[in-house]
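Bench log. Compound arrived from synthesis this morning; before running ITC I wanted a structural hypothesis for how fe (iii) ion sits in the protein. Inputs:
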Amino acid sequence: MTTTTGTEQTQTGHTATAAASGNAATAAFAQKNRDGVDSSQERVDTLATELITAVHDVVRKHKVTYAEYDALKGWLIQVGQDGEWPLFLDVWIEHVVEEVANEDREGSKGTIEGPYYVPDAPELPAEATLPMRADERGTELLFQGQVTSVGGAPLSGARIEMWHADDDGLYSQYAPDLPKWNLRGAIIADDGGNFRIRTVQPAPYQIPTDGSCGRLIAAAGWHAWRPAHLHLKVSAPGHQPITTQLYFTGDAHIEDDIASAVKPELVLEPAPSAAGRGNEVMYDFVLGPA
Ligand code: DHB
Ligand code: FE
């Protein structure tokens, strides 16, 4: 289980820091975002003006002082220095962007991507075990299901990308000492759209508490927890891809996820495995037409 001291010791004893995971997330985002977006001047004007005006309204409403303004300025600068803008935005803003983006979506529910996706994970067959260490800790989990269209047609060869934290709440490529593709894989469903993935259940995840996002959380008296979750991107030719997460019933933070990303449809109820080892759970993905 994770500690609440703010930094995590990995299995080999190194410390995972906010600055290290934040800077890695910032670098990964810069890579993904190379092309930017081609917005009209009118759209930029509208969005920037309304955002700035919303801030003015808060200043007037709460009579924000110069001391508070300088504290904010210092904090915003520090978020950048810690590389924590991806974390900040994905925790406090992304869920509303996702809500708007997917309001007309048919089929399974999506939710936020978060900062720790990495493309091009190793491809695995329909029945596979995610890459993991020989002594990987955590309850074994068999995650199986089918990918179909909204009409119920099996989507042969659908791609299920899955990534999640380990039993310490740490993600490979964003924490020290983890094998590059630990607990990450791209599973190719069989001709019937079926998949059977073996992994270990992730631990509840605490967003880094030793950086500027952690300082905000402490200063505001909030908590830093997300419920344990599996991240997924599911796609098939001719269909709308989905980015989602799945949670586990009974988790202490289902009701108060710091990232506000839990939806009732996304909560799994694993049962003890028939084979007597760990848990198993079924979940089907339904994709709308592209
Ligand atoms: C953050 C981390 C996650 O694993 C996630 O799913 C969402 C947000 C974060 O640290 O910002
Ligand atoms: Fe996550």
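What the model suggests: The pocket of 3,4-dihydroxybenzoic acid (ligand 1) is lined by residues 87, 90-91, 112, 114-116, 205, 207, 226, 259 (CB under 6 Å). The longest strand covers residues 140-149.
ITC booked for Thursday regardless.
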